[in-house]
């Protein structure tokens, strides 16, 4: 009804400037989009507009006004459509009195697609990003100067890694290491946390792969040494962050001279030892367990730890020779598994 009234007013105004100005205000446009959102909760109209090669950037600008939640973005078509806006939407769009860079809309919508649903749906969308070959786009966006955007991209890359661990290898080779380190230097806890979350995911590689990644990471940022940057951050980090930072420093230091102890290695070992003694802090213990696995360097292609299987094999046991037998004891079936020596 409201849209019908505004349409009638516009048609009867014969292009009157005052009417045009009134109807072009952002609050008015936002109100109309809200009405459409209520009438079309799955945004079928906008899906069609996003498919238009001439209208998709303006459609993104328009939709961003009301910031729809994930529940409105259920269609699997949204992931490729939003990624196209991210790729080509770097120029300011003008829609009546509304000014917006479509990439801002793309980041908002992509965040909803990757984090706004339950875990299964989030991961389904993240795997679609990987399957479409769009990690290269995200990696490229990490190289821009805008720190806030770089942080957003880092968080989205983390979502993709957790959904499809095999993409770690591509990212370890192609992601700009300076971009990750630069986030550590920012005086913003959220930026730092995103940087170390991404760094942690990228370290879950087989030893040979992670060594190459660490060699590239060693180059640091600008003229600053990576280990010096991490050491400064280690000294002010939260207890649960220290094990991962210390592990990264330790591995970087081993690349230079494994037999020569340095101040970096001493600080790293002290931080890890302190974490080992923090028995009552569950967050510290959780992070410590993961860092010890990273030090072991035994991971599958998807980033899952294989340390336990490797230890069993080294000890002379092989899970492929596991036998199970059922025994009835006092009427209760008990399944016993016996590991046979190789």
Automatic annotation (TrEMBL):
Name listed for the protein in its UniProt record: Uncharacterized protein
TM region positions: none
Domain of life: Eukaryota
Residue stretches making up the Putative E3 ubiquitin-protein ligase LIN ARM repeats domain: 33-111
Classification via Pfam families: ARM_LIN_2nd, ARM_LIN_C
Residue span, Putative E3 ubiquitin-protein ligase LIN ARM-like domain: 112-324
């Amino acid at each position: 009804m409201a849209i019908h009234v505004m349409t009638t007013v516009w048609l009867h105004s014969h292009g009157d400037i005052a009417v045009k100005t009134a109807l072009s205000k952002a609050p008015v446009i936002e109100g109309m989009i809200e009405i459409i959102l209520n009438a079309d909760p799955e945004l079928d109209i906008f899906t069609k507009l996003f498919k238009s090669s001439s209208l998709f950037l303006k459609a993104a600008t328009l939709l961003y006004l009301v910031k729809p939640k994930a529940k409105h973005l259920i269609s699997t078509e949204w992931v490729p459509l939003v990624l196209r806006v991210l790729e080509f939407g770097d120029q300011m769009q003008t829609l009546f009195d509304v000014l917006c860079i479509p990439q801002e809309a793309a980041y908002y919508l992509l965040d909803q697609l990757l984090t706004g649903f339950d875990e299964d749906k989030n991961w389904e969308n993240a795997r679609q990003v990987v399957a479409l070959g769009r990690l290269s786009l995200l990696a490229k966006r990490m190289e821009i100067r805008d720190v806030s955007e770089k942080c957003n991209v880092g968080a989205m890359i983390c979502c993709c890694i957790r959904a499809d661990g095999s993409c770690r290898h591509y990212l370890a080779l192609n992601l700009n290491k300076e971009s990750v380190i630069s986030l550590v230097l920012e005086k913003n806890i959220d930026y730092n946390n995103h940087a170390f979350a991404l760094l942690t995911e990228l370290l879950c590689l087989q030893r040979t792969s992670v060594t190459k990644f660490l060699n590239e990471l060693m180059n640091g940022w600008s003229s600053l040494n990576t280990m010096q940057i991490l050491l400064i951050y280690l000294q002010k980090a939260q207890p649960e962050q220290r094990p991962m930072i210390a592990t990264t420093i330790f591995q970087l230091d081993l690349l230079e001279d494994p037999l020569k102890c340095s101040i970096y290695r001493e600080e790293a070992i002290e931080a890890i030892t302190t974490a080992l003694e923090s028995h009552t802090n569950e967050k510290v213990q959780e992070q410590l367990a993961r860092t010890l696995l990273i030090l072991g360097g035994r991971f599958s292609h998807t980033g899952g730890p294989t340390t336990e299987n490797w230890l069993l094999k080294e000890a002379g046991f092989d899970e492929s020779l596991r036998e199970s037998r059922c025994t009835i004891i006092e009427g209760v079936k008990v399944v016993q598994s016996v590991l046979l020596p190789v």
